Amino acid sequence: TLGTQTDYRDGEAQTDPYSPEYIVPFGSVPELLTLATLTWGRGLPAGLAEVEMIERAREKRAWEATLPAMDDASKIAKRRKMMDDMERKEWAFREQEIEKLQEIRLQVFKKMLRRREEHQNELDAKRLDDHWQNHQKAKEEKIKKIQHDYALMLRKLIAKRKNMMGKLERRDIIKEYTDFASQTYAPLSRIGYFPDNHSERYVVKNFYLNTFEGLCELEASLPDSVTQVKVKAPKPKYTITKTGFIKRSARLEVELAQVHQ
Prior knowledge:
By secondary structure, the chain is mainly alpha-helical. Among the domains are: 94-158; 193-223, no CATH class. The chain contains eight helices and two strands. A two-stranded parallel ribbon has the order 1-2.
C-alpha cells in the first residue's frame, strides 16, 4: 500500500557489469581470457579498435598452431624464418599505428594553430578597427576646425569687401555706441584725437582748498571731533579665570614676549 520515489534514474544507479569468478581447466586456454585486460570504460563496450585487436589475436593463435614442432632439427630453420616474418609484420603494423597517432596529433595541432590564428586575427581586426575609429574622430575634428576657420575668414573677407575704399560707408551711430571698441569709447590718436590735450579742465578748482581764507573757513566749520583726537586706553585683558587659574592664551603671550626679548 506504500510507494517510494528516488531522486535518481536507473542509468545513474547502474554499476559496472558483474564479472563472476571462473576456473580454467588444466591444459585449456579459452579465447575469452585474451580479453581479461578489457574492463568497463577501458575497451568495453568494444569498438572498432578492440574488434581489430581481437581479430589480430585470433590470427596470431592460428599462426602459432601452424608453427612446426621443435623436435625436428630440419624444421628449426623454417620455424625461425616464420617467426622473423611475423616479427616484421608486427613491426610494420606498429609503425602504421605510430603513423596514425602522429597523423591524429598533427591534425589536432593544426586545429589548435588554426584556432589560435583566428583568435589572433580577431584581435588584430579589433585593434585595427579601434585605430581606424580614432583616426576618423581626429579627421572629423580637423575637418570641423577647418570649416570653422573657413567660415570665420569668409565673414572677415565679406566685412572688408563691404567697405573696400574706407570712405563709402556712412556713419552708423547706433553701431558705434553698441561697440565698446569704437572711436566713441576709445578714440585713437592716429586719427587726430589726443586725450592729453586740455587736461587742465579736469583739475579740481575749489575756493576752500586754494586760498588761506577758504581753509580757515573750512576749519571753522568742522566739528571738534575732527580736529581734536580722543584716544581711549584699552581695557586690560582678564588673564585669570574666576577660579584663579591663568589662561592658556596668557601663558602663550608671556612665552612669546620672552622669546621676543
